[in-house]
Design a protein that fits this description.
By secondary structure, this protein is of the alpha+beta class. The chain is built from two helices and 15 strands. Bound molecules: magnesium ion (MG).
Length: 267
């Protein structure tokens, strides 16, 4: 009996010791090793200085941040090409915007991008035509694979994961923050692509955060795989960088002020 009590007492003592050790853990080495820097370390490199952009109005697109790559210069589609044949993008360019030409197919950037912050502005046809998915439909395809839906979702009911700012077929937006057709709408997207090892095994799923007209609508959601209609396909090994594409869904949706900031690992 006494032996048993002693065993219980020493177990309690060990548990207490472990609790104390776990309590002081935050100040121990592992976190510092992860962080590399101690709090308020003046040896830590300062972030680069950039000039922030300006916000858009309905009348005028804003200026991008100074370290952004401008994907549309307001005049031509020189940074874009046709997905169909790799030739020149066949969409039309108007005064400071470009628009889908139904039937010409998707367009994609000539350059490839990985983890990024992406700004896109779009405007659905006004007056609106059609209902449900057949109304102001296009899409921002991150890495040409993962669609952030573009749709006229103003007074237009469709399935939840097909609304504007949905991760199409995966996640509805948290709220419907759509503006009326004809008005400029903004997507601010933070995307981290998937990672694969040398054998093609998935190490990390892609994730995305989306602000729609300044409102958080996708909160760091983990993508289940590439976008497909009525399907949920698994990931396939892909390079870390791929072109961004825009969808031709047979509606003349307009775009302006597209820019991208590439993110380094850990950002
Ligand atoms: Mg679409």
């Amino acid at each position: 009996m006494r032996k048993a009590l002693g065993l219980v007492a020493s177990s309690v003592g060990l548990a207490l010791l472990l609790t104390v050790l776990m309590t002081i853990q935050p100040y121990a080495a592992p976190q510092d090793a992860l962080q590399k820097w101690v709090p308020n370390d003046r040896n830590r490199p300062e972030p680069p200085i950039i000039t922030p952009g300006t916000f858009s109005t309905q009348e005028h697109p804003g200026a991008p941040p100074s370290d952004a790559i401008v994907l549309f210069n307001g005049h031509d589609l020189s940074n874009w090409e046709s997905v169909k044949d790799g030739g020149p993008a066949k969409w039309t360019v108007g005064d400071g915007y470009f628009a889908t030409v139904p039937g010409t197919g998707y367009i994609r950037t000539k350059a490839a991008y990985g983890d990024c912050q992406l700004h896109v502005e779009w405007s659905a046809p006004n007056p609106p035509h059609g209902t449900d998915q057949d109304r102001g439909n296009s899409g921002v395809f991150l890495q040409g694979l993962y669609e952030i839906q573009v749709l006229d979702s103003y007074n237009n009911v469709t399935y939840a994961d097909g609304e504007a700012a949905a991760v199409y077929g995966q996640y509805p937006p948290l709220v419907n923050a759509a503006r009326p057709p004809g008005e400029w709408q903004t997507y601010d997207i933070v995307f981290h692509g998937p990672r694969f090892d040398a054998s093609g095994k998935l190490l990390r799923k892609a994730n995305v955060t989306v602000f729609f007209n300044g409102v958080l609508v996708q909160d760091h959601v983990e993508l289940t795989g590439p976008t497909e209609h009525h399907q949920r396909p698994p990931y396939k090994p892909t390079p870390e960088k791929l072109p961004l594409s825009l969808q031709d869904h047979n509606h003349p949706v307009r775009f302006r002020n597209l820019w991208i900031r590439e993110l380094k690992e850990g950002e």
